Amino acid sequence: MEKGDIITLAVGLVIVLVIAVLANPQYLSSIKSIGEKPTPVPTPTPLPVPTVVYQTPTPTIVKPTPIPVVTDAPLYRITYTDNPFRYPVFKLPENMQRYGASDIISQKTEWVPFAYIEGKQGGLTNNFSVPYPLWLINTTVTANTNPQYGKFQLALCYTSTGIIIEGEEIFNRGTSYRLVQVSNADMYMIISTAYIDSYHIRLEAPRHYYDLYRPL
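and the corresponding structure tokens:
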């Protein structure tokens, strides 16, 4: 083959190649990509998963405020006077039976003791005052030695005049109740005993009066 023929053949190939590229330009990019290394696709870094910690709330314990307990006051002891003649009346009346038998006390009422006097011998007590509108003289007489001769008498008097407010009389032995409706007045007791072993007197008030009127 002559040199001129080779050149003509080469020119023809170039023309064919140019026509092919113009007709299909994607071939050029394919040829280019064959000689290039593919760009690596970055591996996505996983995001950290937040850790959720559930805490059980600690319950708040509220301690209740203690309610103060109101206790009954100690009993006041009524004592005897050393000078009984200073009172306007210091003897019991001859007829004590006029004061009648023991009063009837309701079992539904709570009676709270607030004062007492006890002993074996009689006499006249010192002055005392009671703040409650209604109260009770609760008397118990013990006479085991000579029960057939036992005798107890009591008179509650105003200090200023000696007028008897209430009285009671117990023969042999036993218990007597006497309701009194005198308050905030000076009073004293005249007590007489014979052939008894002992006596015990408690002054008591109904619970609602005791809580309402008692001295603080």
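(Above: one complete record from the training split.) The chain has two domains: 3-35, 76-213.
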